[in-house]
Amino acid sequence: MYTSRISRNNPTAFVILIDQSGSMEELTSYNGEQMPKSEAVTLIVNALLTEIINRSTREDGVRDYFDIAVYGYHGETVASLLPETKGDFMALGKLADNVRRNVELKKERRLPDGSSAVSVISQKIWIEAEACDRTPMYAALNKAFDTVRTWCATRAHSDCYPPTIFNITDGEASDGSEKELLEIARDIRSLSTNDGNVLLVNIHLGSGTEDRPVIFACDPGELPDSKYARMLYDMSSVLPENISGEITGKHSAECRAVGFNAAITDLVNIMNIGSVSVNVID
Amino acid sequence: MGISISNILESVCNPQGRFRSLEGIYPLGDEHGTPRILSSSNSQVRFPVKWNGSEYVMQVFLSDDSQRMEKLRELMRIIDGADSPYLTEFNALPSEITVFDSSAEAHYCDITLTRTPPGAALAYFIKESCARNDIQALKNVLGQFCDMAVWLLGSGLSHGRVNFRNIRVNNSGRIKLVNYDHMRHAPDADTDNKDIAAIALYIKLLSQDPGRYELLGKWTVSEIAGNINDPAGLMRRSGDRRTLAAALETFAGTAETLRIDLSSLTSDTTPPELRDSSAGIDTRTWNRKHYDNIERMEESLRCVELNGKFGFIDENWSEVIPLIYDNATGFKEGRSVVVLDSLFGMIDKEGGLILPVIYESVDWYCEDGVAKIACDGRFGLVDRKARPLTGLDYEWMGEVSEGMICVRRDEMYGYISSDGKPAIEPVYSDANEFRGGTAVVRHGKVTMFINHAGEEVSPPVKITVHG
Q: Is pTM beyond 0.90 here?
């Protein structure tokens, strides 16, 4: 299980759910800069999309190894954040051709000779930041369920590496009870291809003032004594053994695809592990 | 924390102080100034760069591997020592570039730097020559290519990826081999033979009639190589039976510059290690304890594994197909699917290659006597002798079930029969295999059952008998 090699004939799917509620306006630190969480998250998701495209570039261009869907949720709305999406997913090659704009990012670096230098990086932007209103996470998870159910049911995807859903949030759902959230998460995790069940990764962003972050918890006891933390743990997939052993060093433990009180750099690490560690055919 | 391609891009775009020895190097970008990525994988990425006034391809590795770098340094020495006009400058530089990961931690990555000879890729040269109907240019490059091939075959080197992109042609028609990822010192290997023969055949055909480009121009080396054992298939696909047959018959004999004997390259595609498999081995001494894994007997042969390599032994425990493959399936109706370097092929019970090991996947359906093949992201169907039943016409192909195969073309699903003939037009947005005479398909938003004729039918009724 979770061993299918990803190729143009056997692509996989990523669904990224981004909390765009009002609390995402709070400031965080990213690349040495203070910025709203909403901006930091969108920069990270844009960087992740760039990396996936980079890794799927071959001599004949960008290959459609991945189907990508990105949804933002706030107020009453769950909407695709990708440009010009007709269906739920956008194939990677089309995504590469539909960049909204480029921004210049600057990073200060300490070079090996001890001097410092500023790197200028051109970042492609597909996803724009937004932060307002409440947190309809239950609706967003339902949208992800519908999207991924259709993808898995397509005959051509039956032997593919199963889809991965990243849910990035900094708060609690405003539209679903604990029972409803656990049920929809269970329904998502029960979807599958012949290569395994859909992976649901929940990443809770901290504000920097709470307890230490807990990433890929292998026991609920590792989490803060919080009902919400426990719920996110229960909602999240058990990491596949081949990934779990590599990142946690605990081969026998059942570690969950969950991050709680995660810093922005933890978000980068979690998404990198969940995305670029899949077995793309060379 | 590992490094990403984006991290490497940052250093390549901001080279000041990031390189240990390559002062003044900078990336070549697209029209927006964005550095171009030529290709990538999970382990490496390539960029075009300029250094000391010349263009190079820089390959950066995402992880440390001292053995890999030692091999690359050895390759650098071999290429230097070969002093061949057909090779270009190649450098392997350990820990050359400083790269910062997302936690701002510095890493030192190995690189290779391969000089890009002036000119264009052979693919582009051929396309342009055909467009100009420049038969002389094609004849000239055919002669150059054959001279290079003769040198390569006698050099003791195996390139491993001779194709239209890895051969550069300059303004004078001189050619050079580039991309040494798979190059190694292997005097007895015939890894390159089929690709060389395929390219020679291809240029020869075009030099006789550049107008064939539209017909043949979209073929890859893999497709040509896949058809080269089968002139009938080649002719059928080219659509020009008489001239192509004549070309094939006279190919090796008429071109003075062509010093490859095509027939000797292609008549027996069995690798020498297969043909000479029993040389020096007293197979009677082999017994069960030598193997890591032994499968059950199928069609008088057992698939065995030793040190990660697969082959076959007979009932006397004699090794009849040596252990050279990375994987192999048991024989079914005289065919086994084999895997080498992540590529698939199919062999017969003598170990002869029925399908060369060049495909992304091969699935053998012994009951129907057909194999589903995938090449460069496209699917096709061949029979047990590797004769094409379809071209590589499909984006996806399902299993053979009830003599029908679900296929996708232009993102729509339909069916072909197991002899490769179209059966039900691709008009569905999703479709499944036939079971019990019907298949579930989706047409727009409507999911329905169809029969083998493509007619909508009522859902099958499950009858349970009690008592």
A: no
